[in-house]
């Protein structure tokens, strides 16, 4: 899906005119299933900063730990991430969940580091109410630009690596359900039932296999 610069600027301006968090589109919207257009300066600096701030507000309000531009209806290769929510120490250790400072990811890409994968329950703000066990690379090498165009590279592990993989996949038209073990799928109050540090009990009772 391609959008002219003028049309994109108009679309962003319309979003930014709204009060409060931006609306989050749900699975079934085609914008979630098409690769996002790389960011190459389509927005002026002020508009880009305002969009990133609006996405940050929306992510916090949801609440979530990441949000990609397609999730607010924009087919642009931009995402924001932040994980500063409190977490049980046992869960933090099992999931290698460490704080992630707020940052914008422009045109992010990742490659696996090693061949180890981690299997944990995962959800998505665009697939409201559902979670499923999703394999992710335990460690990834991430390349991206920040909001001023500076290139950043780093190796992430554990939960931070999962967050970046999830958001970067959004920019490639891919949702976590494309990778998930569908026998693990849970909804609503059942998500709390399986909110263990690891999904091993869910695997036994729901009948799916973990490596």
From TrEMBL:
Its EC number is 3.5.1.88. Belongs to the polypeptide deformylase family. It is an enzyme of class 3 (hydrolase). Keywords: Hydrolase, Iron, Metal-binding, Protein biosynthesis. It comes from Cellulomonas bogoriensis 69B4 = DSM 16987. It catalyses: N-terminal N-formyl-L-methionyl-[peptide] + H2O = N-terminal L-methionyl-[peptide] + formate. The keyword Iron applies. Fe cation binds at residues 124, 166, 170. The active site is at 167. The gene is def. One of its GO terms (biological process) is translation. Its cofactor is Fe(2+). This is Peptide deformylase. PANTHER family: PEPTIDE DEFORMYLASE, PEPTIDE DEFORMYLASE, MITOCHONDRIAL. Binds 1 Fe(2+) ion. The lineage of its organism: Bacteria, Bacillati, Actinomycetota, Actinomycetes, Micrococcales. Removes the formyl group from the N-terminal Met of newly synthesized proteins. Requires at least a dipeptide for an efficient rate of reaction. N-terminal L-methionine is a prerequisite for activity but the enzyme has broad specificity at other positions. GO terms for molecular function: metal ion binding; peptide deformylase activity.
């Amino acid at each position: 899906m391609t959008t002219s610069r003028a049309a994109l600027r108009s679309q962003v301006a319309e979003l930014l005119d709204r009060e409060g968090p931006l609306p989050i589109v749900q699975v079934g919207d085609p914008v979630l299933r098409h690769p996002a257009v790389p960011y190459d300066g389509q927005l002026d600096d002020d508009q880009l900063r305002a969009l990133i701030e609006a996405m940050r507000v929306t992510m916090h309000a949801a609440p979530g730990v990441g949000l990609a531009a397609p999730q607010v209806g924009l087919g642009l290769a931009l995402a924001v991430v932040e994980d500063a929510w409190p977490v049980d120490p046992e869960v933090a250790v099992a999931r290698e969940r460490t704080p992630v400072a707020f940052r914008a990811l422009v045109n992010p890409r990742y490659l696996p580091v090693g061949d180890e994968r981690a299997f944990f329950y995962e959800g998505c703000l665009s697939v409201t109410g559902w979670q499923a066990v999703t394999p992710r690379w335990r460690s990834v090498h991430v390349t991206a630009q920040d909001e001023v165009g500076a290139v950043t590279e780093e190796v992430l592990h554990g939960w931070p690596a999962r967050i970046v993989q999830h958001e970067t996949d959004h920019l490639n038209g891919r949702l976590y359900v494309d990778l998930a073990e569908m026998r693990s799928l849970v909804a609503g109050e059942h998500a709390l039932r399986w909110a263990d540090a690891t999904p091993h009990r869910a695997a036994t009772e729901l009948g799916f296999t973990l490596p």
